Structures are given as C-alpha cells and as structure tokens.
Amino acid sequence: MATRHLTVRRETWPIRGAFTISRGSRTEAEVVVVELHAGEHRGWAECVPYARYGETVDSVVAQIETLREPLETGVDRLGLQSQIKPGAARNAVDCALWDLEAKASGEPAWRLAGLDTPTPLITAYTLSLGTPEKMAEEAAASADRPLLKVKLGGEQDIDRVSAIRKAAPDSRLIVDANEAWRPEMLPDYLPAMAELGVALIEQPLPAGKDDALADIERPVPVCADESFHDSATLDRVAPLYDYVNIKLDKTGGLTEALRAAEGAKELGLGVMVGCMIGTSLAMAPATLIGGMAAFVDLDGPLLLDKDREPGLVFAGSTLNPPAAELWG
User: Fold this and answer.
1) Can you give the pLDDT at residue 22?
2) pTM
3) Taking 60 as the threshold, does the pLDDT of residue 150 lie above it?
4) Does the pLDDT at position 74 exceed 80?
5) Of 151, 209, 265, 306, which one is the catalytic site residue?
6) Which of 223, 270, 303, 321 could share a disulfide with 202, CB 3.0–4.6 Å?
7) Mean pLDDT across 162-173
8) Which domains does the chain carry?
9) Is 106 exposed, middle or buried (0-12, 13-18, 19+ CB in 10 A)?
C-alpha cells in the first residue's frame, strides 16, 4: 500500500435564509473535510460537528488529529472502529477510507459494501420551525414535493401541521419535534397527527425521557433520532420506537451505519436515513443507506445557498446516486 497522507480542513457553507428547529436557528453550516492521499489516489469525506452531542469544529478536528499516525501507517476501516468513539470525527475518516478504497480498487463503494446497484431516491424536503402561518407559506411553495419534513416545537404543533396539510394536501409528511414534546401531550398529539395524515413522527420526547412511548398506542409510527446513535443503542430503543433515523455523523461512518441498518431490521425496526446540514459530500455516503430505508432525508444541499462542485444531482426531490468524481 502507498504511504498515506492526511489533511484536515474546516469549511463554512451559508444556509439559504435560516434553518430553525426547537433548539435554535442557524445561518451557516460548519463542516470538517478529511482527505487521505495514497499515491495517485485521494479519498475524502465530510462531517458536521453537532453541539447537541457535545461536538464543536475544534473538538472534531482534534479527534481526527489523534488518528494521524494510525491512518498514515495503514489502519483500515475495521481497525478504525476501535480507535475512536462514534461521532462526526470517525464519520469523516471512515467515509474517506471508503472513498480511497473505491478509487484505488476501481470498484464503486456500493459494490465494496455488497449492496445492489443504487437507484434514484426520493428525499424529504425540510420546513423550518415557525408560526403556523409562516410554515403554511413555506409548505405552499413546496407543495409539489412528494415528501415534506416539518420541524416542530411543542406548543401550537397541531395548528402548524394542520396549516401545512391544507397548504400541501398531496405531500406525505414527516414531523420532527426534536425532543420538544412532553409525555402529557402524547394523548392529544398522536391521534391529531394521525388524523392529519402524518406518515412518521420523529423524536417527540427528550432522549432518555421517552419511556412513555412504551405504554401508549402509537397510531403513527414513531422514529428515534436523538435517542438512537448506533447499533449499541438498538436494544434500548426497540421497545419504544418503530423506526430509527440513521445518520452517519451519529454512527461514526458508513461502516457502522450498515451494521446498524441490518441490526434494526433484525429487530423489526424500520429505517430512516437522515443528515445534518452539509454539502453533497456529506450526503453521498449516506445514499448507500437510502436503498435500505423506507424514509430518506438527505436534503442538506438543498438548504444551502450553494453546494460544492461537483455535487449531487437533484431533480426536484429526486436524488440521483453520486458520481465517482464526488465520492465512492
């Protein structure tokens, strides 16, 4: 194997307008890009540090730097799993190793993973949290999209979803409370979401305080996001949830994401594949999980003011598989 060389850099990508959830608003995406050079080949990948999990750009860069010696002396993807805990730093390194292996072998990443030939995916398009009136305006502007993901915030959420349903009557809806509901809301909110035709409810209660989901009828499937990270957390969430949201920045890369997807299916859990807000480089490895998922939420590049070139090709909400020039 040719000697490897690691480079790490930070990038900032402006968000179109602002992105608002129950925990606050952002106007830019801060990402970390890893490149691994070996001879004439380069593998690269992107991660998005997330404050909800105690990550910053500085902490993630520092974690990656601790891997410099093992990476430059040949550690592989499987060896990486025990070198660093799951999270954004491991994601960037793991996916860069996948890309480097694909480039060096001439085999696409999906084939290396033993997956079927990728096909176009329908991705959700996210509506930021706002007033019912503002969110209805946003929904009306996106009513031609087949799948909308609606950020919620607790109070007024039934009004928000009702307004969105009227504005986008033909779109399937995922609602995402980002831990903003309380257990006493469930008896009213769950039936109301069912009546409004919601297809999936994502993380209604705070992680670690979601035991109430075990004892209540769930007329709409409920998906674990903040409560679920990787295959090690599957046993805990399986009695409480119907789906898990697999994000590579949580699992620590594609290697563990594939394992988690298989483990979820073995436990009878459905799979959603999601993302933080990043460029096409962050989404590309996650498209491999898309073929295993009932719900795909990889719209990060659509929320940015601009994307990297070359990027993923979107036709409306249809996401095409990544070209080799981008990743994999």
Assistant:
1) 82
2) 0.96
3) yes
4) yes
5) 151
6) 223
7) 98
8) 4-107 (3.30.390.10), 121-319 (3.20.20.120)
9) exposed
- For the cut 70, the answer to whether the pLDDT of residue 238 exceeds it is yes
Return all residues near 290 (Cβ < 8 A) that are at least 6 apart.
Answer: 118, 121, 273, 296, 298, 319
Per-residue model confidence (pLDDT) at position 3: 87
Q: Is residue 265's pLDDT more than 90?
A: yes
Instruction: Decide: residue 217, CB within 10 A, 0-12 exposed, 13-18 middle, 19+ buried.
Output: exposed
Q: Would residue 247 show up in a list of annotated catalytic residues for this protein?
A: yes
Burial class of residue 212 in the structure, from the number of CB atoms within 10 Å of its CB (0-12 exposed, 13-18 middle, 19+ buried): middle
> What tokens were used for 266?
């073995």
Q: What is the pLDDT of residue 1?
A: 55
User: Which of 59, 124, 118 minimizes the C-alpha distance to 92?
Assistant: 59
